[in-house]
Amino acid sequence: MSDSSASNDYQAIIDKDQSLLWHPYSSALEPSPVYPVGYAKGAKITLKDGRELIDGMSSWWSVIHGYNHPELNEAAKSQIDDFAHVMFGGFTHEPAVKLAEKLINFSPEGLTKVFLCDSGSVSVEVAMKMSLQYWRSQGKPQKHRLLSLRKGYHGDTFAAMSVCDPETGMHHIFADVLNKQIFSDSPTVGFDEAFTEDHIRDFKQQIETHAHELSAVILEPIVQGTGGMNFYSPQFLQAVRTLCDQHDVLLIADEIATGFARTGKMFACEHADVTPDILCLGKSLTGGYMTLAATLCTDKVAFGICSGEVPVFMHGPTFMANPLACAVALKNCEILERGEWKQQIQHINSIMKQELTPFETIDGVRDVRTLGAIGVVELEEPVTLHEVQDWFVSEGIWVRPFGRLVYIMPPFVISPEDLSVLCQKLGKVVEKICAHQTTKR
Ligand SMILES: *Cc1c(COP(=O)(O)O)cnc(C)c1O
Q1: For residue 132, which phi and psi values (nearest 5 degrees)?
Q2: Would strands 145-149 and 182-184 be described as parallel, antiparallel, or unpaired?
Q3: CB of 255 closer than 6 A to ligand 1?
Q4: HSE of 342 in the Cβ direction (CA atoms, 13 Å)?
Q5: Any known ligand binding at 221?
Q6: Residue 144 and residue 124: Cα distance in Å, rounded?
Q7: Which of 25, 55, 79, 143 is the Cys-Cys partner for 327 at CB 3.0 to 4.6 Å?
Q8: Is the pLDDT of residue 1 over 50?
Q9: Mean pLDDT of 180-204
């Protein structure tokens, strides 16, 4: 193929895409720029026109071991030759059983039952439904609302949306059809900051006021992701656990983003030594290979649900426990079990600290922070993604800011050299963004 036909191809894919497809949060009238991908390996994504990008996003937290991983590839190929799918009603299979065993072993002590479903949002729906059905079975159907934190993000389906931050979660558009949940202030105590009773005051007041109608508290432990990249103190989470116990309210930990080592512990709950009643996993569960999610719960929740008027848990998706996805997820767990992630994340964190911290002095940057393999440069003003996406691509890096947040969470396997380049180029683009914002002001 000649160079010119390759570039024709490239443009043809973009044109077709823009006339036919929706992208996340996209407009059909003014399509956002899209970049056709031809190949990806490790922490590098090669566009169809040959340009190579260093990946700063892990495809939204998920591709933790990098793209095109030989062992994950092999797990998928070997399972597909046996069977790609089989219904989970009445059948079972080794990939699901072995995966469940691993998840129970990995996760905080006390979680004993695994519900395997399709995506993060669905695992949140399942968790919410579990909490509601639990209280129904206990003869307390009035306990059906949830208490959530501002700046939280839990997915895009309707029940999940109802517990997202009321502003960024688009509550205003759907206010009339969403269930009305309770919200308390987002934690203001940083990960390393000293926790005081003041920090939990609003949450405490909300749970005291509403305990009689609350089935559960739902939160992202330690790191509020998409809703603000807010890192908060483990003591806040401990205080939440204590208050949930005191007021007879279940605790749902949404670790869809934080799970599988991203924050430097296998699960973010471990920073606080807390076991939730229900745990949601997704995103990196399959190492970013395909969609799969899990909702884990304790014996108390599982047996509590099934000892009620309706003796079964009322959920069962068509692709529940898809064997192909389970086989890859199992391999992901086996790779994590080897423990290389501990050193990988330490290295990533120290390089990010060193390379990103100087950007604090750029006029227009509000804050720079890191935790585990997450690095955040928070700006004073929101970024117009349309405008700046190409600036990152032109520098050879893949970074996708959200609002005021320019953040990276690279694959754990990224080399120190690539990570340094990623951070330096990111700084260069941030400088350009801030300079541009100043002239507009
Ligand atoms: C991404 C995310 C979800 C939703 O997962 P999907 O797979 O996109 O449905 C829910 N909760 C958190 C914390 C997430 O980061």
Answers
A1: -70, -45
A2: parallel
A3: no
A4: 3
A5: no
A6: 15
A7: 79
A8: no
A9: 98
366 is in an annotated binding site: no
Catalytic status, residue 428:
no
153 is catalytic: yes
How many residues in the chain?
Answer: 441
With a cut of 90, say whether residue 47 has pLDDT above it.
Answer: yes
Asked if residue 55 lies in contact with residue 411, where contact means CB atoms within 8 angstroms, the answer is: yes
- Decide whether any atom of ligand 1 lies within 6 Å of the 225 Cβ: yes
Residue with tokens 């949450």: 203
Number of C-beta neighbours around residue 225 at 10 A: 25
Closest ligand 1 atom, residue 152 Cα = 13
Distance of CA 189 to the CA centre of its chain: 21
What H or E segment, with its residue span, contains residue 377? strand 374-379
Is 25 known to be catalytic?
yes
CA 151 to chain centre: 14
Nearest protein Cα to ligand 1, atom 5: 120
CA gap 430, 425 in Å, rounded? 9
10 is catalytic: no
Q: Does the beta carbon of 226 sit less than 6 angstroms from any atom of ligand 1? A: yes
What does the block give as tokens for 95?
């990939």
What would you measure as the largest C-alpha separation in the chain, in angstroms? 71
Residues 355-361: contacts with CB under 8 Å, at least 24 apart: 355/419, 355/420, 355/423, 355/424, 355/427, 356/423, 356/426, 356/427, 358/427, 359/427, 359/430
Could you say which of 15, 25, 77, 192 is catalytic?
25
What's the distance, Cα to Cα, between the start and end of the chain in Å?
48
- Identify which of 117, 123, 153 to mutate to test ligand 1's pocket (most ligand atoms within 8 A of the CB): 153
Locate tokens 């579990």: which residue? 130
- Give pLDDT tens digits for 348-378: 999 999 999 999 999 999 999 999 999 999 9
Q: How far apart (Å, rounded) are the C-alpha atoms in residues 387 and 431? A: 14
Tokens of 383: 């970024």
DSSP-assigned letter for residue 210: H
